Amino acid sequence: MKILIQRVAKASVAVRGQLVGKISRGLLVFIGLEKTDSIGTSIRAIEKLLAYRVFADKDGKMNRSITDIGGGILLVSQFTLAADTKNGSRASFSSAMPPELAEVLYCEFLEELKSRHMPVEAGQFGADMEVSLVNDGPVTFMLDS
What we know:
This protein is of the alpha/beta class. The chain is built from three helices and eight strands. Helix 1 packs across helix 3.
């Protein structure tokens, strides 16, 4: 599982011109699922995501988590994160989870995330999405699960 997080002032996602999710201050979270991922991997990733300190405290140090600030999370599936880019000039998706399995795990991830934190918004799995954001910092991290 590869999770790319961006600290944002605001973010939104649209499908075919229709807004499907938006947040104000919080985290834009892109998730790429790999063949070896499971619900156990998801739970560990959610725990790390919710505890990861990316927001400034009163001294300007990144010591506060999304939970600490009560910010929003916008979750967007992005299978290209699971690409192997080590060889050649074209990505290989051989390590990516097949779409029918990935959709199930993505939905489980989303529901588990919602049970632990609010507000949570989401894109549409498998759709061609338009993601807009105002990156705050910029601050971007790749979380290892």
